[in-house]
Specification:
Layout lengths: L27 E5 L3 E2 L10 E2 L3 H6 L3 H13 L4 E5 L9 H10 L3 E6 L6 H9 L4 E5 L5 H8 L4 H14 L4 E6 L8 H11 L5 E3 L10 H10 L3 H10 L1 H9 L1 H4 L21 E4 L4 E3 L11 E2 L5 H13 L6 H5 L14 H8 L7 H17 L1
Length: 372
């Protein structure tokens, strides 16, 4: 799949196997070190205040993180993403980072860059990460801080970016397309492409909060672009538009191959990666918070979660007519944000249809077909 469209999950079964053992191998995993963040972004699905003492008290300890990492490496993991919230808020971030590096893992870090210090730079120069990925919310103070709702955050972001760039630390830049910054999106894209060492991607699709906070969900919904706006910003971006035209047969197909089954999962969830929450909750992917599909690593092992629990989740079926008649048999579901995880966050059910997602898919389809 084209990297510019990495946020569109293919609706085809994916299975990566260890050729020797003939078992699924968790080649990568995400560690959400904290849900806390120094910013208060309007669209964020996870962030809690930086000083939230209750959230901090529930975070995995260094020893617990090391135990999970040891189990993951033993099972074949090669790559680890450190994310949050803002992972640099952890006072023991450097110790966690070094511990994982010493285990031979490739390490990536998602950060706002607002907390990057000289000490972090020395760490990354001496022990280079696979990549550091930074989201750019705006290229002017007004736009950036309208998104983050944190005075001074633009200066902190600019300082952090300057430190990363002048020291040659590999950075990948990305953007969220929001109501608050859509007017500045071309300038954001230009900034990202000029300053990244890799491809640039932007994401116009927002899903709802992991914790179900209804007031925060209202903020997210208010930041969503309309389906027509999403189609337009994608068509207005030359690289994105060309990617759509080039790969349209990947996103639009007459038969999705799943008419004769009632399985709920047809994506890559739980096939070669997993996510661990700040409190130690194992999920097949970062967005999958349906209670029956989560596993508490504090009360079990990673091996049990991966080898026993995951297959049971992946075997889940649905008899919901709405799911089968709409999402399951849809020829343009790859242009949609729909999946069991996002459906649950939106409706409380992992097999429900979501009107907004559907409208976005059809707007994208129309735009693609008009430019073919």
């Amino acid at each position: 799949m084209d990297k510019l469209f990495s946020e569109i999950a293919p609706f085809k079964e994916i299975s990566l196997w260890d050729k020797t053992s003939k078992k699924r191998v968790p080649f990568s995993f995400e560690l959400e070190l904290t849900a806390r963040c120094n910013n208060d972004c309007r669209h964020c699905y996870i962030n809690l205040p930086a000083g939230d003492t209750e959230a901090r008290s529930k975070e995995l300890s260094f020893a617990e993180i090391e135990n999970i990492a040891d189990q993951a490496v033993k099972m074949g993991s090669l790559w680890c993403l450190l994310t949050g919230g803002e992972p640099l808020l952890r006072e023991d971030f450097s110790e966690i980072y070094l511990m994982l590096k010493k285990k031979g893992l490739l390490i990536s870090v998602f950060t706002t860059a607002c907390l990057i210090s000289e000490e972090h730079i020395e760490l990354f120069k001496k022990y280079p990460p696979r990549e550091i990925e930074v989201t750019v919310y705006g290229v002017t103070r007004k736009t950036y801080e309208n998104v983050t709702r944190k005075p001074g955050s633009f200066s902190a972001f600019s300082r952090g970016m300057d430190l990363l760039r002048k020291n040659g630390v590999k950075v990948r830049l990305k953007a969220m397309a929001l109501k608050t910054n859509i007017h500045e999106l071309p300038e954001i894209a230009a900034f990202c492409r000029e300053n990244t060492n890799d491809y640039f991607r932007f994401d116009p699709l927002l899903h709802l909060r992991f914790d179900g906070d209804q007031e925060r969900n209202k903020d997210i919904i208010n930041e969503r672009l309309s389906p027509e706006e999403i189609a337009k910003v994608e068509q207005d971006d030359p690289e994105r538009s060309e990617s759509l035209k080039k790969n349209c047969d990947t996103y639009i197909f007459d038969q999705n191959g799943h008419h004769n089954c009632n399985h709920l999962f047809h994506c890559g969830a739980g096939q070669n990666s997993f996510t661990v929450s700040p409190e130690g909750i194992f999920r097949l992917c970062s967005s999958l918070w349906y209670p029956d599909f989560t596993y508490d690593l504090k009360n079990g092992s990673l091996k049990e979660a991966w080898e026993d629990f995951v297959p049971k989740v992946l075997a889940t079926t649905s008899d919901n007519p709405e799911y089968h008649n709409k999402c399951h048999s849809c020829s343009i579901v790859n242009l949609c944000l729909w999946c069991p995880a996002h459906a649950y966050l939106e409706t409380g059910s992992p097999d429900s249809w979501v009107e907004y997602f559907c409208d976005v898919a059809h707007a994208r389809q129309k735009a693609i077909e008009e430019t073919k």
